[in-house]
Amino acid sequence: MLSIEKFNFKGQKVIIRVDFNVPLDEKFNITDDTRIRAAMPTLKKIIADGGSVIICSHLGRPKGVEAKYSLRHILPNVSQLLGLPVDFADDCLGRQAEEKAAALQPGQALLLENLRFYAAEEGKPRGLSENATEEEKAAAKKAVKVEQKEMAKRLASYATVYVNDAFGTAHRAHASTAIIADSFDADHKLFGYLMNSEVDAVEKVLNQIRRPFTAIMGGSKVSSKIEIIENLLTKVDNLIIAGGMTYTFTKAQGGRIGKSIVEDDKLELALELLKKAKENGVNLILAVDAKIADSFSNDAQTRFVPVDEILDGWEGLDIGPETERIFAGIIEESKTILWNGPTGVFEFENFTHGSRAVAEAIVRATKGGAFSLIGGGDSVACINKFGLADKVSYVSTGGGALLEAIEGKELPGIKAIKG
Ligand code: AMP
After folding, report:
1. What 3-state DSSP class applies to 419?
2. Among 216, 217, 220, 403, which residue has the most ligand 1 atoms within 8 Å of its CB, making it the best to mutate?
3. Which of 7, 31, 66, 90 has its CA 20 to 30 Å from the CA of residue 219?
4. Which of 35, 116, 204, 259 is catalytic?
């Protein structure tokens, strides 16, 4: 596989898939430009080498052409961060895009309009009537798949090289993230720097593990994390289960959980996971105490109680001090750490303490030489909120993509280039 460090883009016309799906306020100002910044090293390298770039991305979830999802909103920011005027094509597949791409000179950049203005990007039919028959649905599906291939070919025709730097969409087999790669031979397609870093970080927690390896899984529901937990049970030494998931495990073992969040249909599964952990020699660690509240609010009355003695009408919204101490001890002795999901309702200031304790323990372990990967939506929000993002080894930009990678799935965007 080609390496971006060694590749010389001089004279090449590069189509690069980035993830510029940034949050915008009501006036279309970017409220967090992390994703745009994350692609800059790759874009700058191509320009510095004397190549030209055709940048493509999605923004939001448009159902068709919708002005509010236009990438034109972010054009000034892209130009400013790249340090050169970036041209814009109003339609990623139109004649204008083709002509502008053809006219690009070395050192120039062009941003294409939102790829998802076309259903073909995702390869999923849109606007099907609710009354559509199975046959109609199948026909629409087939048609959009054909269009998807055509779209990928059209995008590929603009360029001589394809770069994928969009880890956030690597778990999708879309026209621009995977199928486009079929139009380039192995010497003309590669990952960007961001994609490389993400892939390396995942490798470190899946295949290049330094032990002990501890995963901290938080968040609200067991059901959304089953596959990850199952895959991790074959890899980790310690699996810390925290957050709302705790109470499904506690109830399954006969504890009193009051009105804490619980998935009653997953009690059996919780017991099975405990059994599997034992069989695999994994130390599965659950909370021993909880910070409970008499309502789901920041201003609720609170108490600390053993996790299996939660009063009727009360609910556990964070871990307690004894649990914090236990979790921190395990984390600090680890050499590989993966954190996904808060230990409590971190959106409420009064229930952030546990997540902060976990974050701080991870920072201490990292200082001591551990590799720490933080990923998947809310733990990234946590680490940013605590101002500790630069004190851990790696904060992933990919939510769903990271989770699927940790589940052990092959990501289409990665396979398309790696083979
Ligand atoms: P997830 O998206 O599965 O990682 O879940 C993150 C969400 O879980 C956050 O919005 C937290 O507020 C929520 N959460 C964590 N702990 C609890 C809890 N004890 N009760 C209810 N929600 C929780």
Report:
1. coil
2. 220
3. 31
4. 35
**Contact between residue 396 and residue 166 where contact means Cβ atoms under 8 Å apart:** no
Cβ proximity of 45 and 5 under 8 Å: no
> How much distance in Å is there from the Cα of 381 to the middle of ligand 1?
12
| End-to-end CA gap in the chain | 9
Q: What percent of the chain has pLDDT over 90?
A: 93
Comparing 256 with 419, the larger pLDDT belongs to 256
Long-range contacts of 271-277 (CB under 8 A, 24+ apart): 273/222, 273/229, 273/230, 273/233, 273/249, 274/249, 276/230, 276/233, 277/233, 277/239
Residue 241 Cα to ligand 1 middle (Å):
12
Helix (H) or strand (E) holding 302, with range, is strand 302-306
In a domain? residue 377: yes
Distance from C-alpha of 275 to C-alpha of 261, rounded to nearest angstrom: 22
Prediction pTM value: 0.91
The domain spanning residue 113 has which CATH number? Answer: 3.40.50.1260
> What is the mean predicted confidence (pLDDT) over 57-69?
97
Binned at pLDDT 50, 70 and 90, residue 322 comes out as very high
pLDDT for the residue 398: 87
400 noted as active-site residue: yes
Query: What was the pLDDT predicted at 399?
Result: 85
In contact, 18 and 167? CB cutoff 8 Å: no
Same domain as 160, residue 36: yes
Strands 213-217, 238-241: pairing is: parallel
**Pairing verdict, β 189-191 and 213-217:** unpaired
Residue 417 lies in a domain: no
3 found inside a domain: no
Residue 377 predicted with pLDDT over 70: no
The residue segments making up the domain with residue 345 are 209-406
Q: Is residue 95 part of a domain?
A: yes
Burial class (CB in 10 A: 0-12, 13-18, 19+), 417: buried
In this prediction, residues 230-238 reach a mean pLDDT of 95
Give the end of a domain, one of 137, 164, 196.
Answer: 196
Q: What is the mean pLDDT of residues 309-315?
A: 97
